[in-house]
Amino acid sequence: MELFQKIIKRVLLAVFSLFVIVTITFFLMNLIPGDPFMSEKANPEAQAALRAKYGLDQPIYVQYVKYLDGLLHGDMGNSYVLQKGREISTIVTESFAVSMSLGIRALILAILIGVPLGCIAGLWKNKAPDAFIRVISAVGISVPGYVIAAILMLVLAVSLRLLPTSYNRPGGTVMPIITLALYPTCYLIRLTRASILEVLNQDYLRTERAKGMSETVVIFVHALKNSLIPIITYLGPLTASILTGGFVAESVFNVPGLGRYFVSAINSRDYTLIMGTTIFYAALIIFMNLVCDILYQIVDPRIKLD
After folding, report:
1. Which of 84-106 are b and which e, b meaning 16 or more Cβ less than 10 Å from the residue's Cβ?
2. Per residue of the chain (306 residues), what is the pLDDT tens digit?
3. What whole-number distance in Å separates Cα of residue 237 and Cα of residue 103?
4. How far is CA 56 from the centre of its chain?
């Protein structure tokens, strides 16, 4: 019962956080010079008619109240520019399905590679495997995503011709998945290594060894379990970020996912699409953080959900 009350409290806090994000995004977006119809090939009278049609000629506070009222009724509006007249909820749902299909595979790849390599680096501290893994992870974190995407395309698609550049062709998802997974994989390596090293120096592990417990049980049952908390902390926002699509990966490889639509919406000043993608992304991050907070208590019951 106590846990349920705390979850309700966190949900209410999440709703308030989402309201703040919506408010800040709305007013910052409208501070940008111009509007969605500046690039329209129409005379000033036609542009003015479009602004009046969508209510963009009204005071900003009136637009804000109307938008909030629409949100409360489940209406996120229609696209102004990119897909004129289509409901934002439909665009977000369809594009998120594409991003999620890539993101889940990239997330699994990052966890399956990053966590074991981080454990190896931690257990072989200052030895050859540790040094090699640290160099690889440092490079993966330091190199920007668009450089990784360009290198993959140049080597695998242009030079070796192993993979297609088009997302819709067989094998077209391999390079976007690698681009999405590389940074979180390298970050998980460093995070897991640091967590393992910290846990291995704890007194309770020395006590377990003194009791005659095997090194395998000490490491894989006690040490690894207690080193998961920092990893779970990172997996929350990572999952939200990678499921909504990488802005760079989807733009470079022309993937019709949520990340590419977000970038395109900003470039075209498609206000409703900017708001829709931002709200969805923020809600997903808040939800994943709540899930991680609950997982803390499963991994370590001493942690309280306050």
Report:
1. eeebbeebbeebbebbbbbbebb
2. 566 777 788 788 888 988 999 999 999 888 877 777 776 565 777 777 778 888 888 888 999 999 999 888 888 888 888 888 789 989 999 888 888 888 899 999 999 999 889 888 888 888 898 999 999 999 989 888 888 888 998 998 888 888 887 787 888 889 999 999 999 999 999 998 888 888 777 766 677 667 777 666 666 666 776 777 778 778 777 887 787 667 778 888 888 888 888 888 888 888 899 999 889 888 888 888 777 777 766 666 555 555
3. 13
4. 31
Whole-structure pTM value: 0.80
Question: Is the dihedral angle over the CA atoms 104, 106, 110, 113 positive or is it negative?
Answer: positive
Rounded to whole angstroms, the Cα distance separating 233 from 289 reads 8
One-character DSSP codes across 107-143: HHHHHHHHHHHHHHHHHTTTSHHHHHHHHHHHHHHHS
Q: How far apart are CA 51 and CA 68, in angstroms?
A: 19
Cα dihedral 17, 19, 25, 27 sign = negative
Question: How many CB atoms within 10 Å of residue 172?
Answer: 17
